[in-house]
Design brief:
Length: about 200
């Protein structure tokens, strides 16, 4: 993460970026979030369709999505649907944890019936998400790209105002200023992934 006034290259940013699991409770200014997602929108996009859509839940708005998440977890069996003290305590802890995250950004797109077009749109949205993570790092903002079971729950989508038949959630980004930056983890040498055919 760069210091104020420091200029680093895009290659350094790619290497330096981390998934942030511990966030400060301080919210990120909306103008900064808009700039981050504006830079993200320069992702490659087939036919310039720019399929990505964003819902950001912050402040009191977080309560609605967190309640919907809890109900979804109960429906799919990740949380018991009962009134036992242990279950109530687990739900309370989960809500407290999620409420400490300043921003939950839900990234979604409209489904395509054609399977090739669907893959093109999904790939483009994923590029948008990675651009957002890199742009956020430049602003000193951390993100965690999450893929969670409730994203595939049709009732969850309905509760947040999305038609399950029409839209697909690609990811939920947890966003805020890093409380702790994980250490660098080395990658497998590319020679182990690379096949040259001449």
């Amino acid at each position: 993460m760069k210091r104020e006034g420091e200029v680093i290259s895009i290659l350094e940013t790619i290497q330096a970026r981390r998934s942030i699991h511990q966030l400060k409770e301080q919210p990120v200014d909306l103008s900064v979030l808009k700039e981050i997602f504006t830079y993200a929108s320069y992702a490659p996009t087939h036919y310039m369709k720019e399929p990505w859509q964003i819902k950001i839940y912050q402040g009191h708005g977080r309560e609605a999505i967190i309640d919907a998440i809890i109900r979804s977890y109960q429906r799919i069996g990740m949380i018991k649907n009962e009134q036992e003290p242990k279950t109530k305590k687990m739900i309370h802890s989960m809500k407290e944890f999620l409420l400490k995250i300043p921003h939950h950004a839900l990234i979604y797109f409209e489904k395509e019936e054609d399977s090739v077009r669907y893959e093109e749109e999904y790939a483009s949205v994923c590029a948008f998400i990675q651009n957002a993570q890199l742009a956020a790092w430049e602003y000193g903002v951390g993100m965690l790209w999450t893929i969670t079971p409730y994203m595939h729950d049709p009732i969850f989508l309905d509760e947040i105002g999305l038609d399950n038949e029409r839209f697909k959630i690609a990811a939920v980004l947890q966003i805020g200023y890093p409380a702790k930056v994980p250490r660098k983890k080395e990658r497998t040498p590319i020679e182990g992934k690379l096949e040259i055919i001449e």
